[in-house]
Each structure stands twice: as structure tokens, then as C-alpha cells.
């Protein structure tokens, strides 16, 4: 667990509890402890459980047992069993649940899409994008990875990706790639976003390592790949498709000769997962 994660959690908790838990402090004595279980009420894939466990431990809550990330859950399954001060557990309950339900949803959605794609084209990777809820990127990317998804670039500092607005400012595909190759470290690959066949050909000839076909229809992607093959350029680049891809059309893209399908859907529109906390024992210490 990173210091940043603790700092993020404190910020999230402060939003929900800027001063105190008024109800809890008025109705529950400070010496009351509870044992409670977190239960899944949905079919889901668990994610980032270990990170949440570390946060709970930092808060002084004892985690008696917990499942591992990537575990498949069904309604009624126990995610974790915890013991600690009643006030503390009720104070952090909603914040923890809000995080877990979103992360479980991301993992569940990613796994379902991957299961479909593997039956069609096992070589294709399903990748996340930078479209994530602010503050949750570290955990969301882990949720994608824990069930077989690809994290893609973690941040702007992580990888080179020339996008449409870069091209509008710089001028053209060839110039953008030339400038990057002149100035970037040898360790970085160069990815560029293109919107038609001509740009894709220019990018491949200019030495791009990865070509992202952005917001193209299935037929448009097929035409780009056919043209690259015709020119002997297909095997020189990784082909990524992105933009407007959802569970409804992802299978059609997977039937093509592509390497990566990146989707913001899995991080911004994940399946809803339901969790609950049940107090099973109360004692005073």
C-alpha cells in the first residue's frame, strides 16, 4: 500500500465526515466493539481487497479473514470479517463500500468482456483508458489488471501517445513522430492516434510502434488492416482500436486482426455490484 492511498482515503473520508459522525457518537459508547461481515449481494469479481484490508488495519480495525482479489463471488458470499470499535466501523462503512462496489464493478465488467473475447480471438487484449473517476486511478487500474485486463498507460508520464490535438498543434503525423523519436528516451515506444487509412499508413511508414484506430467503424478498421497488409506494414505495428466500444459491439472488433481493444466503458460504466455490512456480535471492552 502506498502513502498516496492513505492520503486519498483520508480525503474521501473527510468528505463524508468533515467533523464527526454525529449519530454514532450520540448513540454508541466509545467502549463498544463489534464483529461484522461484509457480504456480496451480487454475482461479482472481487478487486483490490488487499488494499482495503490495509486501510482498515491502519484505522485500527482487525481483519479476521478476507477473500483474495479476482475471486468470483455469488450472493451471500463473505468478502471479509472484521472486528473493531463500533464507532470506527460505522464511520468508514459507506466510504469503504463506495470504493469497493465501484472496483468490484470494474473487475466484473472487465472479466465478462474478456470471457467473451477469448472465445473469439484469444490474442486480443482488453485495455482500460485514462478515463477514470479522479482519485481512483491507482485502484481502478488494479481492478482491471486483477481479472486479466490491460492497464494501458497509467498516466501521462507513463507512455507516449500522440493524440488528435497534438497533431492539430504540431501539424502532421510524420512531423509528430519525427519529433518524438528525436527527443524521447530510447526506452519509450511511440503510439499515435489516427482516424483514417492515410494517417495509419503514414504512421506506420514513419516508425510508429503502436497505431490507435480511433472512433472507426468495424468496416473502417478492416480496410486499414487490409491496406497495411497489402503494403507489408501490418506486422511492423501493434494495432489498437478505441472509441465508442461497448459490450454490444466489442465482439465484432475482436473478430478483426487487432491486438488491443481499449474501452473506457469498463472504468466509467461498470456493472453495479451490491455489498452489505452485517453486525454479527456486539461487546463492550
Topology:
Layout: H1 3-16, H2 22-27, E1 32-40, E2 44-45, H3 49-58, E3 62-66, E4 72-73, E5 78-85, H4 86-120, E6 125-127, H5 137-146, E7 160-162, H6 164-170, H7 173-183, E8 190-194, H8 197-206, E9 210-214, H9 218-230, E10 238-242, H10 250-254, E11 260-262, H11 265-268, E12 275-284
Parallel strand pairs: 6-11, 7-8, 8-9, 9-10, 10-11
Antiparallel strand pairs: 1-5, 1-12, 2-4, 3-5
Helix pairs in contact: 1-4, 4-5, 7-8, 8-9
Describe it for me?
With 285 residues, the chain is of the alpha/beta class. The protein folds into 2 domains: 3-110 and 271-284, Quinolinate phosphoribosyl transferase, N-terminal domain (Aldehyde Oxidoreductase, domain 3, Alpha-Beta Complex), CATH 3.90.1170.20; 114-268, Alpha-Beta Barrel (TIM Barrel). The chain has a 6-stranded parallel β-sheet with strand order 6-11-10-9-8-7. A 4-stranded antiparallel β-sheet has the order 3-5-1-12, covered by helices on one side. It has a two-stranded antiparallel ribbon with strand order 2-4. The chain has helices at 3-16, 22-27, 49-58, 86-120, 137-146, 164-170, 173-183, 197-206, 218-230, 250-254, 265-268; strands at residues 32-40, 44-45, 62-66, 72-73, 78-85, 125-127, 160-162, 190-194, 210-214, 238-242, 260-262, 275-284. The longest helix is centred in the middle third of the chain and has 35 residues, at 86-120. The chain is built from 11 helices and 12 strands.
